[in-house]
Each structure stands twice: as C-alpha cells, then as structure tokens.
Amino acid sequence: MKPLIGITSDLDPNGETLVQSNYSRAILRAGGLPVVLPAGIEDINEICSRLDGLLLTGGGDVNPLVYGEEPHQEIGRLSPERDEMELALTKCMTDKDKPVLGICRGHQVLNVSFGGTLHQHIYSKLSAELVQHNQQAEREFATHSVDVIEGSKLAGFAGASEVQVNSLHLQAVNVVKAPLVVTAVAKDGVIEALESTEHRFVMGVQWHPEALMNRNDPTSLNLFKHFIEAAGQAY
Ligand code: MN
Question: Is the pTM of this model over 0.90?
C-alpha cells in the first residue's frame, strides 16, 4: 500500500478549505497517497495514528502569542484554529517518529512545535542587508541561493553545497531548539531549512519544493522521494 500522507490546508474567510494542488501532485509523483486535512479538525490522535506522514503546507503567519511574542505591526493573516491543529498533530506525529515535512509556513510551524521562535517580519527585524525573499517571479522558478550544511540529510538530497530555491516568505525561523538543527542558510543569513537529528525524517524547508518539482528540480524530487520512502517504512 502507498503511504498515506496528510496535507494540511487553509480555511479561508468564506469557510472554504484551500490547498494548492502542487502538494498532492508532488506526493503522488513520489509514490504517496495524499489526503487533505481540514483546518481546525479535532480528532488529532486518530488522524495521527492513521497517517504514515504529514505535510505541513504554506499559508499565513503563525500567531506570535503561541511562541510567547506580541504581534509585530506588519504581521500577516493569522489562523489560530489552524495553528492549534497543526501544532497538536505535529507533536503527535513526531512523538511517534512518523515523518513530517514542513514547507514555508509549515517549516515555521515545525520550528514552533519544538519550542523555537520566528522573526515575524524579516525586513524590519533583521539588520543585515537581505536578499529578496518575496519573489516576483512565478513560484516554480528559483530566485535565490542557499548554502546547505555539510553532513545533513538535506545535503545528501541536494548533492551540492549550494542550491537555488524559490522564496515566498516575509517571516523566518529565529531561535531553533534541539533536536532541530539548521541545514540551509541564505546568503544573508536567513535560515532556510531545518531537520531533526533524532527522528527518522523530520524536515522543514522555507522554500516551495512542490512548485520547483514542476520544473523537475532534482533536490526537490529527492526530498519528496525520501519523505515518502520514510513514510512507507515499517517501524
Ligand atoms: Mn528565502
């Protein structure tokens, strides 16, 4: 049987469940079976026990109160219901050592779930000169480089010490707590990827590999392939 992968989704103001089709396409292409999880769903333990892997998708900002901060004036759209559900489900999955891949907002949720914090608005919080992280090109095109940390799982997937990624974010990971470690950094120092040193597959990327896969980006293909492989392994 194909590994069953839960995909988190947004609840728009009209009450519609929204999720970009690139996520399920990427999971199918890598050999998994995607299922979309409505935001705010309550049966976390049952969902957690049935899923073989969890994909935390992109979206709005995490409520800063969750990581102990007051909201910056430039904070974007919040969805506290979604935060609560994703954080609880991530905790359950990682407690059971089931694979989790966090993308963009999902990478940030993953960091918060392990007690980390976020830069709420990188252009007003970080003093260094920053590259453009909210690209104006279509999302399937890479626009900035990241240095991949040697010895990480991500480095194995990338097969190079530097890769090009797309970038659609105004927030970034700030404090990172063990067992998560930083595995990729943009040229301006912004943290772009994380992984756990204690789990089979717990990884976050600030970019959108599911969109880069539309142009057959090899690192993105490898990332999804290993995610689905880990989800399919008996443990
Ligand atoms: Mn970026």
Answer: yes
- Which domains are assigned to the chain? 4-231 (3.40.50.880)
Ligand 1 centre and the CA of 229: distance in Å?
A: 27
Cβ atoms 24, 7 nearer than 8 A:
yes
Residue 235 predicted with pLDDT over 70: no
Q: State the Cα torsion 212-218-222-228 to the nearest 10°.
A: 40
**What residues are annotated to the active site?**
104, 208, 210
Give the model's pLDDT for residue 14.
Answer: 87
Q: If you measure from the C-alpha of residue 167 to the centroid of ligand 1, how many angstroms do you get, rounded to a whole number? A: 4
Rounded to the nearest angstrom, the distance between the alpha carbon of 112 and the centre of ligand 1 is: 18
